[in-house]
Each structure stands twice: as C-alpha cells, then as structure tokens.
Amino acid sequence: MKRLISLALLIFMLMGIASAASIETTGAASVALEPDIAQLSLGVRSFEADVTQAMANVNLRVEQIRAALAEMNISPDGIVAEDVYIYSNYDYDTGLNSGYNVTRQMRVTVSDISIVGNVIDAALSNGADELNSLSFSSSGQREAYDEAMALAVQDARKRAEIIAAAEGMTIVSLTSLAEGDNWGGGDYYYEATADAASGETELAVGSLEVRASITAVYEAQ
User: Fold this and answer.
1) Which of 38, 28, 29 is nearest to 206 (CA)?
2) Which strand (E) or helix (H) includes residue 207?
3) Of 137, 197, 166, 136, which is closest to residue 25 (Cα–Cα)?
4) Cβ atoms of residues 30 and 213 within 8 Å
C-alpha cells in the first residue's frame, strides 16, 4: 500500500514539474520631468607671440566672465575655471614659431533655467570665445528614476502574465530580477535662437525623459 502511495506521489510531482515553465521578460518605463539645472562649457582663447602675455590675457578674461556672472547671482561654486591648453604655432616649413595659442575651459552651473540665454550672452560679451556644450539636468532625477523603475517592474510582470495566459498558465512566483544598464540618464532637447532685434540668445528647453528597465524571470504553472 505504501509503495502505491509513494508511486502516486511521485507521478503527481513529476506532473507538477512538467507543467511548470520559466518566463523571462523585460520591462521598461520612462518618466518626464522639467530640467532645473543647466551646465555650460566655455572656452577662452588668446594668441600672442609671448606665451606669458597670452596666458595673462586669458586669465584676465576669465575673471571678467566670473565677475559678470556673479552679478547675475551665479554662485561662485558654480563658476569653475578648469584645464589650460598651450600650443605653439610652429611652422614646419620655415622652422619658426610665430606665437602661442592659450585656451582655458570654464564650467558654469546655472540653477535658474530662465536666465541661461542671458548667461551665455554675458559670457560671450565678456571674453568667452566658445560655447563648447550646454546640457540640462534635474534635481529630481533620482526620484524620477525610482518611479520609472517601479513602473518597469510592473511592465515586466504584465508582459509575463500575458505570455502565461496565452499558454493557459498563471504566474506563481518571481525567481529573479535584474536592473538594466541605463542608470537613469535622460533625453532632452533645446533650441537656441538669436532675437532678431536685440541679438540676445533665446532658449526653448524641452523636458527630460528618465528611463529605466529591468529583466525578470517568473515561474508559471
């Protein structure tokens, strides 16, 4: 009798194993938010026969830019003078050096998006020669990523349930969950134009799109 019971239990267990399946899905979601921080990369250049004079010119214009931006209530911590590059203007045909190009990079962080165009204009009119890059971010980006991640988990579960239902099965457990590689960087757009009358820089800034993805494995029966 015990042998018959054991055999029946074994058959039942094998049937359960045979009817189980693993379903792997990828969930994705995005959350839009408005940027509230801008970061500018500026370049200040000078060419002189004497490298010391070229360096002095650059340093003077950096301080002029710093003073102009300080009047716009840009924090001193948000105005950083960074790398200095020095190149000799050497003519390989004549073997002569006609002078030196000195360039210094500046990084400016602006916490008021509405004045970014004015900041660009002030920097260019006070000695900046180049606007190398302009990027936007948000102080709420971490929270937006967490929200997108929660939505991505829900999306993965929904996809798994659809697949299971198509096979006449139901999800019984979650066996693994892995976060995607995109930490939460966002896409944004902006359009820069010059006002025809004043020549001032005007910006139309779009929203940030923060994305998250996960890969999940579920057991279904």
Assistant:
1) 38
2) none
3) 166
4) no
42 or 207, greater pLDDT? 42
Residue 149: count other Cβ atoms within 10 Å of its Cβ. 21
The angle, 0 to 180 degrees and rounded to 10, between the axes of the packed helices 51-70 and 116-125 is 150
Q: What is the mean pLDDT of the chain?
A: 86
Tens digit of each residue's pLDDT (9 = 90 or more) over 174-210: 999 999 876 555 555 555 565 545 667 877 777 888 9
In Å, how far are 42, 69, 82, 219 from 107, measured between CA atoms?
Answer: 6, 12, 7, 51
Read off the amino acid at residue 32. A
Looking at residue 65, its amino acid is: I
Q: Is the C-alpha dihedral spanning 44, 46, 50, 56 positive or negative?
A: negative
**Tell me, what's the pLDDT at 12?**
47
Angle made by CA atoms 186, 201, 184, in degrees to the nearest 5: 5
Q: For residues 140 and 39, what is the distance between their CA atoms, to the nearest angstrom?
A: 16
Q: What sign does the CA torsion over 59, 60, 64, 70 have? A: positive
Lowest mean pLDDT among 17-21, 66-70, 119-123: 17-21
Q: How many CB atoms lie within 10 A of CB 201?
A: 18
